[in-house]
TrEMBL record:
Start and end residues of each Isochorismatase-like domain: 9-156
TM region positions: none
InterPro entries, A to Z: Isochorismatase-like_dom (IPR000868), Isochorismatase-like_sf (IPR036380), Isochorismatase_domain (IPR050993)
A Pfam family recorded for this sequence: Isochorismatase
Full protein name: Isochorismatase-like domain-containing protein
């Protein structure tokens, strides 16, 4: 079981330049916003990235609004771990359970997950908060990562795993959020 005080979320590259070609992007953006809201209710730190924002655009308006005042870390490497600013931000959290959301499952998310696992992190993939240009690439990326030791789960599952108990003060907020997901 993942512990809330050991969890950190990484939102990978959900940018204006990518969105039009991403499979099921309308649903994905809704899920990403719900995920960010849920993790904020649970006080789980969130790190966001962009892939070469100068050429591929900024984080979408809806996701940026959910993130609040956090400025995404811009990177040129496909793996977030290849960016020193990202690794500094991740290490500063002191957390070892990394939850990945964003795009593309089989490229930036996959490479980030594989490198994080090599570095001793526990990696969790929220399947309904990830996508790629083609559904098959998304599914194959999830399968490869599951075979490599990452945990594949869903948003609702991970929110309740981190919540643990209905007596938690965050329960009402998470319960209301999950009703939106239904």
């Amino acid at each position: 079981m993942m512990k809330r005080d050991d969890a950190v979320v990484v939102e990978v590259d959900y940018q204006d330049g990518f969105v039009p070609v991403i499979y099921n992007h309308e649903k994905l953006e809704t899920r990403l916003v719900q995920a960010i809201r849920g993790f904020r209710i649970l006080d789980v730190p969130i790190i966001a990235t962009t892939q070469y924002a100068k050429g591929l655009g900024n984080t979408t308006a809806a996701v940026a609004e959910a993130l609040g005042d956090f400025v995404p870390i811009d990177k040129r490497t496909f793996s977030c771990t290849g960016c020193p600013e990202f690794m500094e931000a991740l290490e500063a959290t002191g957390r070892k359970s990394v939850i990945l959301i964003g795009i593309e499952t089989h490229i930036c998310v996959q490479q980030t997950a594989l490198y994080l696992m090599e570095k001793g992190y526990n990696v969790y993939l929220i399947a309904d908060c990830l996508s790629a240009r083609f559904r098959e690439n998304h599914e194959r990326g999830l399968a490869r990562l599951a075979d490599s030791g990452a945990t594949v789960t869903t948003l609702e599952s991970i929110l309740f795993e981190l919540l643990v108990d209905s007596r938690d003060p965050a329960f009402r907020g998470i319960s209301d959020l999950v009703k939106e997901i239904w």
